[in-house]
Write a structure and sequence with these properties.
single chain; 223 residues; alpha+beta; four-stranded antiparallel sheet; two-stranded antiparallel sheet; 7 helices; 6 strands; globular; binds zinc ion
Amino acid sequence: MVRRHQMLTVGVDGVAVERRLAAGGLSCPGCAGVLAGWGYARERGVRGWEGAVRVCPRRSRCRGCGVTHVLLPVVVLLRRADTAGVIGAALVAKVAGAGYRRIAVELGRPVETVRGWLRRFGARLEAVRRVFTVLVRSLGTDPVMPPPTGGRWGDAVGAITAAAWAATVRFVMVVPPWALAAVVSGGRLLAPGWPPDAGNSGQQRATRVAPDGGWSRAVIFGA
Ligand SMILES: [Zn+2]
């Protein structure tokens, strides 16, 4: 069985997104219909490495099935006030053996916040490993599979890193692991409802690949 994982990325700056929407260049992750602009999602603040960033994601609506989709910048995870890169750094530190208190101090984040990230991610390690291992296979013509690390945390984070490397090679552009994780999870890396309970079926939702916007300034679809 071959599962396809495609990622859709477009420029996150308003002009590029509008141009793409106007040209019918964004398609529905559900039915592949054309997406049209549909107002804006609520503005929110996200904490990055260098302080807060204001984000006001564009909302879109499918002309085919009528479902609305928020175009979420890849730096953002649903329900999280910190950027994917900051949260990813905490997960990497955990793999290296750090506990949540130490990670919180090193990242300058509240202890309970970091504990929440680790708890959430820690409850889906095997599912994450599976999703990104499948992705490595689908991205590479000669994929380098992540070696077992002897730990479930290391295997899960290692699979994300391996997928980012596979995407970097495939698209000949730097694909940051935590941006990729945000894209592949639809922003739900630490949110309920992801990974989908794919089990033996191929229910894993495909994400479209269109890396012309570049990864650092890309947007993704969240339901
Ligand atoms: Zn649709």
